[in-house]
């Protein structure tokens, strides 16, 4: 996958112009180092716990699962291998630009740093994006992120997600630094923000305890508990067949007419991707509507910028079908029509 990307972006026609925040670096191969991780380096990651593992250890929603991480660290083969997406590659490619933008915006200096491992607990390790150096506060940890529009705005509105916070605190714990920063770029909108974060020793103590307990399970078992098979995290888990097996499909009764058709793969994956975007957009619309409602307050109607917003109480009458069925079953039957639809339901197997 990476080889393909490398060939296409090395083509002269698509090489980006020298970015002004990279004085003297136009000739450098701009692929981030993370995109070039070898199998040996990936195996190296299995030898300990890094910053991006913490949200899994703590089962943090929306993606974290300690059992999933346990499968990964103990070398279980994935039933449904994770494919590196173009968005993941974009994040890696843009890491240098995010770091350079951070330097430009803050006037601070950064430098690359190799992996760090705690001497007393060699399973505790970290690979930070950059070390912030040369300032009065002493060295700090810099994590560079790229996000799409929705997450970028959510992050501006609600602050950092738990997975980011845990990652940065773990970086401070292993390096011994007392502060850190997040640099976040929304590439399509070409907007950038950065946050400073202080070391939180209380949070670090909790993380350290949870990570130590988890590592004992990696070394000696048993595997951490499963999540409920109906949990959304299980639906796309690369280890879902090994972990949940038939429980995932327990709610599907009839499999007598199921055919296998690999030709649907591309369209199915596009559909699932679009559903994710739709769910995120619906969430944002609801949040914005609540904010608007708060701003409008008790006013029944408001005009603004060529629009009129009505926000009045509206009376609606609905039949209580559950009660009707319980109290007047013959009437309910009499006025119930049977219609046939063909809903598309997709389950993970
Ligand atoms: S299937 Fe669910 S419980 Fe099992 S490892 Fe995956 S996310 Fe965790």
Description:
With 349 residues, the chain is of the alpha+beta class. It has two domains: 2-220, Lambda Exonuclease, Chain A (Alpha-Beta Complex); 284-315, no CATH class. It is 42% helix and 12% strand. The chain is built from 14 helices and nine strands. It has helices spanning 2-10, 39-45, 54-57, 66-73, 86-93, 95-106, 149-158, 162-175, 201-220, 232-235, 240-244, 265-296, 321-327, 329-334; strands spanning 109-111, 116-117, 125-126, 130-133, 140-146, 179-186, 191-198, 301-304, 307-310. Strands 1-4-5-6-7 form a five-stranded mixed sheet, with helices on both faces. A two-stranded antiparallel sheet has the order 2-3. Helix 8 (162-175) packs across helix 9 (201-220). The protein is globular. Residues 1-36 have low confidence and may be disordered. Iron/sulfur cluster binds next to helix 4, helix 10 and helix 11.
Short key terms for the protein model shown above:
disordered N terminus, globular, alpha+beta, 2 domains
The rounded Rg comes to 25 Å
Count of distinct strands: 9
Would you tell me which CATH topology of the largest domain applies? Lambda Exonuclease, Chain A
Count of alpha and pi helical runs: 14
Per CATH, the class of the largest domain reads: Alpha Beta
Helical content (DSSP H or I, runs of 4+): 40-55%
Rounded mean pLDDT is: 83
Order of helices and strands: HHHHHHEEEEEHHEEHHHHEEHH
Q: What class would the helix/strand composition place it in?
A: alpha+beta
How are the strands ordered across the major sheet?
1-4-5-6-7
Q: How is the main sheet built?
A: 5 strands, mixed
| Ends distance | 25 Å
CATH architecture assignment of the largest domain? Alpha-Beta Complex
Bound molecules: iron/sulfur cluster
Contiguous low-pLDDT stretches (5 residues minimum) are 1-36
């Amino acid at each position: 996958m990476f080889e393909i990307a490398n060939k296409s972006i090395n083509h002269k026609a698509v090489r980006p112009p020298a970015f002004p925040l990279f004085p003297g670096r136009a000739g450098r191969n701009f692929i981030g180092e993370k995109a070039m991780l070898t199998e040996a380096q990936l195996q190296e990651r299995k030898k300990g716990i890094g910053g991006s593992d913490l949200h899994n250890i703590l089962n943090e929603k929306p993606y974290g699962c300690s059992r999933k991480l346990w499968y990964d660290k103990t070398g279980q083969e994935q039933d449904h291998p994770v494919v590196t997406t173009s968005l993941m590659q974009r994040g890696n490619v843009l890491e240098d630009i995010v770091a350079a933008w951070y330097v430009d915006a803050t006037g601070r200096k950064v430098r690359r740093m190799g992996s760090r491992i705690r001497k007393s607990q060699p399973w505790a390790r970290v690979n930070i994006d950059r070390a912030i150096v040369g300032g009065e506060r002493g060295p700090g940890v810099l994590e560079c992120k790229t996000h799409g529009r929705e997450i970028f705005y959510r992050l501006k509105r609600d602050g950092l997600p738990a997975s980011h916070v845990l990652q940065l605190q773990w970086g401070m714990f292993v390096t011994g630094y007392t502060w850190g920063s997040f640099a976040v770029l929304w590439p399509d909108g070409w907007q950038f923000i950065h946050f400073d974060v202080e070391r939180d020793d209380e949070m670090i103590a909790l993380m350290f305890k949870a990570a130590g307990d988890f590592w004992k399970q990696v070394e000696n078992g048993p595997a951490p508990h499963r999540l409920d098979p109906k949990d959304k995290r299980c639906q796309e888990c690369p280890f879902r067949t090994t972990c949940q097996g038939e429980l995932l499909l327990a709610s599907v009764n009839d499999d007598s007419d199921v055919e296998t058709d690999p030709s649907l793969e591309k369209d199915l994956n596009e559909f699932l991707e679009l559903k994710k975007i739709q769910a995120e957009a619906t969430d944002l619309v609801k949040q914005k509507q609540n904010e608007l409602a708060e701003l409008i307050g008790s006013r029944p109607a408001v005009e603004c910028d060529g629009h009129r917003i009505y926000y009045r109480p509206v009376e609606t009458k609905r039949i209580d079908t559950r009660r009707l069925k319980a109290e007047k079953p013959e009437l309910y039957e009499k006025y119930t029509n049977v219609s046939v639809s063909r809903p598309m339901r997709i389950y993970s197997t």
